[in-house]
Batch of 3 targets.
Target 1
Amino acid sequence: MGDRTTFDELATALRDYLSSQPDVLAAYLFGSRVAGKARSDSDVDTAVLLSEEDGVARFERRLRLMNEVSDVCGREADVIVLNDAPPLLQHQVLKHGRLVFERDRAARVEFEVRAGKIYADLKPMRRFFQEALFREIQEVGLGGRR
C-alpha cells in the first residue's frame, strides 16, 4: 500500500485493516504521530488489545501484526500488545494515545479500568524508586562517580 502520513489516513487504514482481524478488540495510535511530532522517517506506534490467548501466541501475533500494519500504513510500524505491556506503558498509551478501532467496548473499558487501577497501585513504589535514584545521583553523581 502507499505511504500514509496524516493521522486521519493512518487511523482509517488501521480501522479498515483491523476490522478484518477478529482477535483485535481495540487499537490505539500513540507516539510522535499523535503528538504531532512525527518526522518523515517516523514509524507508526500502534497498541492493540487482543482477545485472551497465551503469551507465546500473543507474541507471535505481535510479530505478524507488525509486518501487516507496516504494509497497511506504507511505513515501519511498532506494535505493542497491551495485554502484555508494562503498566507504565499501558498508562502512557491510554493517556496520550488515541483510540482508532474498537470491536468490543466492554472489553476495552474493562481493560482501561484495570490498567488504571494497577498504575495507581504502583504509584507509591515508582515514587520511592525515583526518589532513591535522585538521592543517589545527588550523592554520587551520574555513573556512580563524583
Target 2
Amino acid sequence: MALGASDTPINRSVAQIKATQIELDIASANFDTTLKRYKPLATVDGETISCFGLFERFIEYKEKQIDPRTLEKYKTCLKYIEGYLGDRKAEEIDQPLTFAFSEWLKAQLSPITAKGHISLLKSAFEYGVEQELVKGNPWTEVVATFKVPPRKAPCPFTSEEIAKIINGFKNHETYFYMAPYVEFLFYSGCRTAEAIGLRWGSVSENCSTIWIGESLSKGVRKSTKTNRARTIHTSERLKQLLLSIRPKHPNLEDLVFVTPRGNPIQENNFRNRAWEPLLKDLKIGNCSTGGS
C-alpha cells in the first residue's frame, strides 16, 4: 500500500508503524480489507478537519435534500457545536466528550431537542467516515443510550367541552371565522398542520372523502409528519361542515381554512391569540386539538 509520501527517515518510520499495525490486525483477524484504517485522513488546507468543519461539510451535503425548516435545525446544531466544542478536531472527539456534550445540551434544552442534536452529530460523523475525514464514530453510544421521557398524553375533552369550545368560536367577536377549522380538528383527527394545509383539491366534490398527504406549517408545505398519505371517510357531521363552507366552484389549489383576508392560518397566532384565551374564558383545561 503506497503512503503517497516522500522517502524520508520520518516517513519510513511511519511506513514501518503502518506495516506493524497491518501485521497485528492480520494476526488478530481484524484486518481491514478496504485499507481505510491504514490510510491517512483526508485534510482541509493541510490540517485534519475540526468537528465544526465536518458538520459544515455535512450541511453542504444535505442542504439540497432537506426542506428549509429542517436546514435551520442543522444550523442551530452548528451553533451548539461551536459553543461547546469550539475548533476541536473531529478526531479528538471521544466517547466521554460526547456524553459531556450531551449533558451540557440537556441542561438547556428539552430531552427530545437535545437528542435531535446529538443524532445529527452521529449522522455527520457517519458521513465523515464515508468521506475518509474521520476514522470512527464516537456518537453511536451516546445516541443509543439517550432516553427521552415519554410525553404526557393530551387530556381529552368531554363532548360537553367540545360543544362549548365550538360555540365559543362561533360567537366570538373576532375569531368567529375559526369555528369551522376548530370543528374540523375535533371531528377529523387531523394534525393542525394537515388541516391548515388542506386544499379543496384534496376534498371530494360531495365532501365524503378527504385525502391527507401534505401539511403546511410556517409557510412551508411538505409531506405529513409520518410521510404517509391517507384517506378519511367523513362522518355526516364533518361532511355537512365542509359542504357549508365549500365554494360553488372552488379553485382546487385554494386552502379550505383561511383568514378573512384569504391567508393561511398561522398555528402559533391561533393558539396564542384565539385558542388559549378562549379556553381560559370558558374555564376549560388547555388540552390539544391535535399535534402539528
Target 3
Amino acid sequence: MIVSRNKKGIIILFFLCIWIIKPALSLGSGDDTGKRPNLLIIMTDQQRFDALSYAGNTILKTPNMDRIANEGVWFKNAHTPCAVCVPARASIFTGHTVENTRVVNNGAAYDTKTPGIMTMKTYDGKIYNNAVTATKTTELGPSMRKDYLNFLDPLLPVRNLQEGEFYDTYTLRADLASRGKDTSENPGQGDIHGITSIPADYHVSAHEAGETLKALERLKDSTFSLTCSFHHPQPPFLAVEEYVNMFPPDSMPLPESINDDMSNSPYKFIKDNLSPLYSDPEKIKYFISEYYALVKEIDDRVGAILDKLDNLGLTENTLVIFMSDHGEMMGAHGMRSKNMFYEESSHIPLMIRFPGRIEPGIKVDSYISLTNVFATIFDYLEMPEQASDGFSLRGLIEGTDKKNGKYLVTEWLSSLKTKPSHMVLKEGWKLMIPDSSSTKVMKALYNLNEDPYEMNNLLGNNPEAYKYESKVAELEYCFIEWLMKSRGIPLPTSGIGLSQYDKEVRVYPNPASGRISIRVAEAQLPANIELLSMDGRLVLKERIYSEYTSLNIQDLIPGMYFHTITDADRFVNTGKLWIK
C-alpha cells in the first residue's frame, strides 16, 4: 500500500487488515518545493525477527533488508505492540497502545461502535483527501484487495483445480505441488502451502513492488510519504517456484521447541493456534521452505525499490523505515500463526535509514515497541509533535536517551480465557500476565538469557517458583508503571492507587494478580509495610528486603485502606489504597 503527502502535511495511513493486498494510493501530487524530507515505509506482514540474515539467519539471505540496517540502524529487541495485524497497525498508525485504541482484534477495524481513539473524527477509517485508487475505494476493508485481482484476472484467469491442488484463499488461483501435504485434508488458510501457479512477474509481491516503483517515478519531483505494505510472508504460504527451489525442505532446521509438551505453558488451553501440520517434524520443514521463499522474494523486491531511490537521486533525502506488524510461530511449541507472546510471534524486524541524520551500522539493544514509530517519524521529518503513547527513537539512536527502552509491554486483549493479556520484557526476563487472578491461564516467567526458546516456565507448577518472587514483582511494577503512563484502564482487581513520599516509595495495586506491587529505594531497605483498614485495624504486615516486592491482598475485602512504610522504625511513606 502506498500513500503520498500533499501540501497540508503528512498523512501516514496503514491499512488495518490482513485481507488487504492494496499496494498503491496517491494523495495528490505532493509538495512542489522538494525541500522537505521524504518518507518511505516498507512493511511486511507476519515476518518474524529471525527471518533476516542481519539477525543471524544463515539459511535465509536478505541482502537488501540488511542493506537498510547496514546503512542505518537495526533495533535488536523490537516487538509488536500486539501480535495480530489490525491491533498492531492501529497502534503504529496512531502511536497509541491497544489499551487506548481499543482495537483488540482484526474485526474491530470495521466496527464503528468500537470505543477508543480509532473512532475519533481524525481516525474515521477513511482514506484522506479524496485518494484515487484503481477501484475508487474510499473505505478500508477487504474489498481493497480487488485492485490486485483486477490486475491478475486478465493475465491469469481462474481455472479448475487438478488432482492434489488447493485454491489460494486470496487469489483463487491453484497451487502446483502437494509438497508434504495429505490431499485428503481440508486446510484452513494457515495450512495452505506449496508452489503457486502464478508466475513471478504476476505474483502479489511483484505487483506491490511494481506499484511502488511507479509511485516513486511519479512523485520524484515532490515531497512524498509512501508506504509499500507487502501482503506476504503471511499465509497462505504459496511461493513462486524459483524461490522455493532455493530452500530444499530437507535442509530446513526444525524449531527447537517443536516438541514442547506445553504442560507448564500459559498457552496450554489454546486450540486455535494448534495444528498437527505444525507439530509434525516431517511436514513443518515444507512450511519453513515456503515461508523463507516468500521472504526471499520480498527481499529482491525491496532491493529494486532501494535501487529506484538511488537512480532517482532520492536516497539522501528519504527516511526509510522497514518493519513487520508481527511474527509467525512456524512450528515453535508446535503452533502456527501469531497472537502469542513467544519470541517467534512478538519479536519483529525494525530498521531505519536516513543518510546524514542516522549514522550507518548502528545497533540498538533497547527494548522497542512499534508504537514508538509514530513519534519517530514526526521527529525526523521535523513536524510538530503529536500526542501519542510512544516516544521518538531518535534519542536511543543517537545515544542521548538514557531513560527509555529499559523494558517494554505488549498486549493481547482478546481470547482472555485461554491466553495471557500482557507481556513485560526487561533485561532478558519475560513475564506473561493473565488479565485476572481468577482465570485458569497461568502466569509465566522466562529467562531468555538462559532459555531463549521459552521451554521452561519458572512459575506455574514449578516447585521452586518462590525463588523468583522478587523478579516477578519487579516486572509487575514495570507493568503498572506502563499502564499509568499510557493511561490504560486498570484490569479487574483494583483501581489506580499510587502513593509517593519524596519519590522513594511507590505502592500500586496489581490489576492482574490480586496483589499490591511495592518499590522501595535500596537505601531504605529493609523496610516494614503495614496495611490498615479505615477503622485503624491492622490487616497486613510484612518485612521488605528487596527493591521490588509483591504482597497478596486477595483475602482483603474491597474498600479503602491506609498503608505505612517504615525504615528501621523511621517513618518513610504513607498513603491511601483502594482495593476493588
